Amino acid sequence: MQSNEETTTTTAADSGSYPAPVATADAGHAHDGGAPGGAEAKAKRTLAVSDAAVEAIRGQLAKRGTPEGAIRVGIRGGGCSGFSYVIEFDDRPPRSGDLVLEFAEPGKATVRVLCDKKSIIYLSGSVLDWEKTLMYQGFKFKNPQEATRCGCGHSFTVA
């Protein structure tokens, strides 16, 4: 049985401060062969995860006791500006069509970030970052598609 999920693996050595993995299809999938809007369009539908966010995810999964789990990111309708960001633990296997990003480092648990195919439309080109200041600690999206963001920073509109 084949799945439509995309898997990308990066290592700390591959990633700069914002690793931007190139999406690749699972080994069982045929490649597009240059069809318009095929593999090239899929490669652009990805997001980056900062090194700080990868370490924060790894720490949260370990603290939770599920280092083999994943973090699912996405969007939902709602909030004061139209869309809200969603970040949640996911212990199930990826769903069909999910973008699966894997960040591997020798001697450390592999971090997986999952995103459903509808959310990646609005998150494509974004960076998931971990921010820690005196007033705030948590994940933050840097999304180039945001037209406006509400004052609380949890909801947004797109252009």
Task: Provide a compact summary of the structure.
The chain has helices at 39-44, 51-64, 119-123, and strands at 6-11, 24-25, 48-49, 70-78, 82-90, 99-104, 111-115, 127-132, 137-142, 146-149, 155-158.
Q: Helical stretch count?
A: 3
- Rounded to the nearest angstrom, the distance between the terminal CA atoms is 38 Å
Secondary-structure-based class equals: alpha/beta
Give the total of beta strands.
Answer: 11
Outline: globular
H and E order = EEHEHEEEEHEEEE
Helix content: 10-25%
For the largest beta sheet, what order do the strands appear in spatially? 2-1-6-7-4-5-11-10
Largest sheet: 8 strands, mixed
Residue-averaged pLDDT, rounded? 77
Radius of gyration: 16 Å
Contiguous runs where pLDDT drops below 50 for at least 5 residues: 1-6, 8-41
Strand content: 35-45%
List keywords for this structure.
11 strands; 159 residues; alpha/beta; disordered N terminus; 3-stranded mixed β-sheet; globular; 3 helices
Topology:
Elements: E1 6-11, E2 24-25, H1 39-44, E3 48-49, H2 51-64, E4 70-78, E5 82-90, E6 99-104, E7 111-115, H3 119-123, E8 127-132, E9 137-142, E10 146-149, E11 155-158
Parallel strand pairs: 1-6, 3-8, 4-7
Antiparallel strand pairs: 1-2, 4-5, 5-11, 6-7, 8-9, 10-11
How would you describe the overall organization of this protein?
The chain contains 3 helices and 11 strands; from the N terminus they run E-E-H-E-H-E-E-E-E-H-E-E-E-E. The N and C termini lie far apart (38 Å). Strands 2-1-6-7-4-5-11-10 form an 8-stranded mixed β-sheet. It has helices spanning 39-44, 51-64, 119-123, and strands at 6-11, 24-25, 48-49, 70-78, 82-90, 99-104, 111-115, 127-132, 137-142, 146-149, 155-158. By secondary structure, it is α/β, with parallel strands linked by helices.
